[in-house]
Amino acid sequence: MRVDIITLLPQIFEKVFDESVLGSAVKNGLIDIVMHQFRDYGDGRHKTVDDTPFGGGPGMVFKPSPLVNCIRDVRKMSIPAPVIGLTPQGVSFNQDLVKELAQFDRIILVCGRYEGFDERIIHEFDFQLSIGDYVLTGGEIAAMTVVDAVSRMIPGTVGCQDSVIQDSFYEGMLDHPQYTRPSIWEGLEVPEVLQNGNHALINKYRRSRSLLTTSVSRPDVFATCDLSDSDKEIFQELIDSSSSE
Q1: What is the CATH number of the domain that holds 65?
Q2: Domain count, the chain
Q3: What is the model's pTM?
Q4: Does residue 157 form part of some domain?
Q5: 42 vs 245, which has greater pLDDT?
Q6: Residue 212 sits in a domain of what CATH number?
Q7: Choosing from 10, 88, 177, 191, which is the catalytic residue?
Q8: 167 is a catalytic site residue
Q9: How far is CA 199 from the centre of its chain?
Q10: 41-74, pLDDT tens digit by residue?
Q11: Per-residue pLDDT tens for 184-220?
Q12: Of 16, 67, 142, 209, which sits 20 to 30 A from 53 (CA to CA)?
């Protein structure tokens, strides 16, 4: 996959994209991340890319011409790709969208900053994306989040692909609790079912914990999950067990 990132601060991505799993994927050619400094498209001798908002108010707003000209040039550099504006009014970033974006051979991410984009720039986006209901200084951290999440879906990025499938939200649910050695630590013991080697019971236990954790910690997510008949039986057993205690 090729990822083009349009930003005023390309240098802040270097360390993030050079390290860990993502860095290995880049080195191994699974992901090609190309940075574009759109100040190069700025107006005049000082390469100006922003100006004060019409109607007054604090902050600065990205001018339309520099960014739109950059986007149009970047579109032409490789195969067709969706242009994604990282903005507060975008669709919420979730695992379903991660999977959808991972199907593209190329995506283009546009990082906002200051008070945002001149509204006329938004017509150049194929869609807008938000990573959450909070305020960031700029879209660079959002872009890092998108690249990291999407890259995990590309086979070979994560050494064990099964671990990706078992991640929280991959199939809508939170992940089940995880344990490792020692089996007893500060008086807290790993559940016996995880130590007996019966994989059918282990899988059922893990699924039940995933259902329970999601229903308690994220009822909003649980309410949207399409439970299988097996899930419904397991969840009913949890309810019955809780009622009998």
Answers
A1: 3.40.1280.10
A2: 2
A3: 0.83
A4: no
A5: 42
A6: 1.10.1270.20
A7: 88
A8: yes
A9: 31
A10: 999 999 999 999 999 988 999 999 999 999 999 9
A11: 999 999 999 999 999 999 999 999 999 999 999 989 8
A12: 142
Q: Name the residue range of residue 221's domain.
A: 171-244
Catalytic residue among 167, 175, 191, 231: 167
For residue 158, is it within any domain? no
Whether 88 sits among the annotated catalytic residues: the reply is yes
Burial of 211 (0-12, 13-18, 19+ CB in 10 A): buried
Residues counted in the chain: 245
Judge whether 106 and 2 are in contact, CB under 8 Å. yes
